[in-house]
Amino acid sequence: MTTTLPPIDRAPLRRRRRRAAAVQVACILISLFMLVPMVLIGLAAVSSPQALLEFPKPLIPSGFSGDTLLAFIQATGTIPALGNSLLVGVYTVVLSLLVGAPAGYALARQVFRGKDAYQVFMLLARALPIVVLSVPLATMFLNTGVYDTVFSVTLLHTTLAMPTTVLISASIFVSVPTDVEEAAQVFGCSRFEAARRVVFPMALPGLAASSIFTFVLSWNEILGAAVITLGHRTLPAQVLASLGEAPQAYRFAGGFALILPALVFIFVMRRYLVNMWGTTLR
Amino acid sequence: MTVTTAPAPVETPVAKRRRLSGSPWLLLAPSIVFMLALFGWPVIQALISAFTDDSGFTLAAWDRLFGDPYFLRALRNTLLLIVIVVPVQLVLAVAMALLVQARPKFLSGHFYLWTIPLAVSELAAGLVWLSVFDSRGYLNSLLVSWGISDTGVQWLNYTNTGTMLLAVVIAEIWRATSLVFVIVVAGIQMVPKDFDEAAQVFGASAWQRLWHVTLPQLKPSLQVALILRTILALQAFAVAQALTGRDFPLLVGETYQWYVNLQNPAVASAAALVVLALSLATALFYLRMMRQQEAAK
């Protein structure tokens, strides 16, 4: 210790270093908690079926093989279900934008009586559980003949996504300055033209980002899709329905296959995450 | 698609402009019609089908639901799950947000990992943790190869309610803390740094600053996260379904059972309405609390 020298207080510096180290350790621990399970299911998915039966399992599988994943992909219904998932996702994005974005625009630009009531209605719809809708919608779809179609799942998912689409697109349109719109109108655009030619292009990146969220919402939704379809299931609903009789290998491969898109989605969207989920969800 | 846009009325440009600027309802109408048809109407239908049968008003569906031993277990499990998971998630998410504020190394890498579960479906999360908690899974492999246990623990066996709950809780924390985290990070970014620095200048300890400066300003975000997470946790079912099948019943899972496997829409509606009632009660309770706090100010 530096007892002979004039007293230099090193304690704050040391405390600072210790704190920085603690922060690093905490970050790494949390990252491991998030990462390790995904690595494990990845390892399970690339293990050969024989290696999956081993116990105790070595961390690195004794036999690598694409058989497990291949068996999942070739299982009855997987490929069509994947197609259904993609179709439902895309249709849901288009439909919810067509119906929701104009409403968002109106909320962003205009003050009117009933605005609060409308917003409360949308928030209420957000708070209500999808399970309440699924059963009566299934009956309704059965009666109208659209039961068990990609279209019926689209309608359900659009209902689910609508409040978020309206609220997010409202906040996107708010961030497009009114000035440009007024300038366009000064130069002779009608209000509709101004919205279409000036505001819409400026809002497009934001709308695209919110579309990806809608797609993820639809991609991940299970209960509704499982209840209102039999032959046209989305991929998660298909996996859920097969859980009862499926071997472990199918489950692990299925779980891994369902996670892969998440890695891509979040990687593409990571800079929008905080703004979009954080501030517009309230 | 039929329900999308109402055709614009043919009018002179000036009248049209005035009309459009005068009436936002033209733009709102499609969404209102859509939501009434696919949201309002089904809720009413659910109410009707839970209380009626061919002969009129009846409570038969409710009798069957409450007489079913699975239902009470499902109710208990769901509430237990919320009581355990939501507080843990709030604390963990605030801690994670503070870590982000401390600007650690490789922040963007950590941030990416911490938010991946946002896009992971409930079912996938359940399957991920199944590979860990399965009786021949990675956790038991580890226990056996380290010699801690001879045969491993039957984590997901239906007799081990405690370990089943533990597995579902861990999977839920893994999956849904990201959502709270992102909401809290957004909230913390809107808090001006001045207050915290001022407190630091006046010699407040880290705990004091967290407790008296940061947390009070985070309150709106925390409230949103609390409401949202509680309501979403009420709807949890696929995690438990993937991990335990029906051995660890949850309310929404019971609805699924009644509708898909037992083919009884009336009882399924009744179970769904229980979830609805709990969601509404939660939302109203939290809103009441907030309003009281505001009134007290």
Write up what this structure looks like.
The complex is a heterodimer of chains A (282) and B (297). Chain A has 282 residues and is mainly alpha-helical. Chain A is 77% helix and 0% strand. In chain A, helix 1 crosses helix 12 (248-269) and helix 8 packs antiparallel against helix 9 (191-220). The mean pLDDT of chain A is 85. Chain B has 297 residues and is mainly α. Chain B has helices spanning 13-22, 25-51, 60-67, 69-101, 107-115, 122-133, 138-145, 161-190, 193-201, 206-234, 238-244, 251-261, 265-296; strands at residues 52-53, 56-57. A two-stranded antiparallel ribbon of chain B has the order 1-2. Chains A and B meet through helix 1, helix 4, helix 5, helix 6 and helix 7 of A and helix 1, helix 2, helix 4, helix 5 and helix 6 of B. Chain A: Residues 82-269 form the ABC transmembrane type-1 domain.
Quick overview of this protein structure:
The complex is a heterodimer of chains A (282) and B (297). Chain A is mainly α and 282 residues long.
Keywords:
heterodimer, A: 282 residues, mainly alpha, MetI-like fold, 2 domains, B: 297 residues, disordered N terminus
Task: Furnish the topology, listing elements before pairings.
The complex is a heterodimer of chains A (282) and B (297).
Chain A: H1 11-46, H2 49-53, H3 67-74, H4 78-109, H5 115-127, H6 130-144, H7 150-174, H8 178-186, H9 191-220, H10 223-228, H11 235-242, H12 248-269, H13 273-280
Chain B: H1 13-22, H2 25-51, E1 52-53, E2 56-57, H3 60-67, H4 69-101, H5 107-115, H6 122-133, H7 138-145, H8 161-190, H9 193-201, H10 206-234, H11 238-244, H12 251-261, H13 265-296
Antiparallel strand pairs in B: 1-2
